[in-house]
Amino acid sequence: MWNGRVKAYLTVYLSLIIGILVTFLTTMLMAVRNETIRFETECVMDMGLDSIFAEYHRECLKQYDLLFIDSSYGEGVPDVNKTKNHLLSYMNKAFKGNNTLLSKDLTALKAANGTISDVSFASDNRGEVLRYQIGQYMKSKYGLNLVSKAVGSEDIAKRKDEFDSLNSQRESADGSVDEILNEINSTLSEEEEPYSVSNPADAVEGYRDDSMLIYALGERRQSLAYGSTDVNSLISHRTVTNGVGLMGSKDTGLMSDLSMNNYIFEKCGYFDKEKADSRLKYQIEYILKGKGDDAANLSLVASDIFKIRYAINEAYLWSSAVRKMEAEEVAIAATSAVGVPALTEAVKASILFAWGYAESAQDLRILYDGHPLPNTKNDSNWNISIAELPVFAGCLDNYKISASGMEYKDYLYGFLVIKNIDEKTVRLMDVMEMDIRKTPGNEAFRMDGMIFSLSAEVNVYSSYGSSVSIKRNNMYR
User: Fold this and answer.
1) What is this structure's pTM?
2) For residues 148 and 437, which has the higher predicted lDDT (pLDDT)?
3) Which of 83, 319, 329, 382 is the most buried (most CB within 10 A)?
């Protein structure tokens, strides 16, 4: 009896204890499994994001030192769903791990579905995202020592504005000559020979419609290799895919613009320093002018330089007593038969304007031959004589060389400084598209499909019935 009662009590006690222990252990096991699922999901999500950000576009890094994910994956049409599928694929590979028939997966997780949102593309907000990464690259390479090379950029803007005013004055002087002559000749009888003026400025007028490349390059312009492209397929001329733009801190203002200008000179080609294997040989000239033809861009930049030099040369001519006296002597000789002082003054003015034109053409030849131009003119660095004015186009190969001044690249940099930052950023993206499309597998490359940052939300399920949703943000830093 006693022994039997003891055994019965122990059996009931152990049954109760074992039931409690099993429940406790099962609860603990489920808690550990759920915590393991949460922790494993976080780790695998981070691994998956690192994996898709490791799929940066190789050619973009090689040519431009920039990191972006190509959301088209070489197929040309940007699609963030492809990026999502890559993320899910990487996560599921990580979840599967090294499981074999002899091992047991205690979490049995699978990334079933997800979404990609808050995508930031390189082209967002007229290239603001691109500028940010360029700023990061330039600061990492040069620190804060981005000193502007724009010698006289303020003067460049001022001189360009002066050209139109000077041109109006020239047209007024030429009109005065014609008006005075017509008025005098109207008083003559039919038997009298009408008066005319042998004005050397008239010879210059015949050149004003010529391309500036004739002066800048001479015969060399015929031997240059010019590239061309269809700009309609480029990002500046098509509807783009838009993202959320740059989120968080921004690199804007003067430092951003300065980084852009220096970066453009580091990565892009220009006259006499062309980039190898580029669609357009003169890329900075394209960024400034936006034409799909090298010759057109070169000519337009040369025209802008001409306007600046014209303003500089006219400022010297009208301030030089010696040059004005030379012009007056020629004007007196040309109008002596008429004897009207107002006509002499008008011819003198037209000569000074024509003289400035001829000297500016000479400046272009000097500059495109690789020599600097002085920022101001004086008696010692002036080239075209008044006697050479009627035949100045044949005298451009003979000139004085200045030891200092602005070179061609300095003018380009100055033009970049005064160029709208959004416009030059979009055209820089044009250049990137042109050149990267020349490489194998990138024929349909688009800057508006290049991902800089994103948010990803993924739903993960376990075969044991648990599930977890996780969201992460990631970007290139």
Assistant:
1) 0.87
2) 437
3) 83
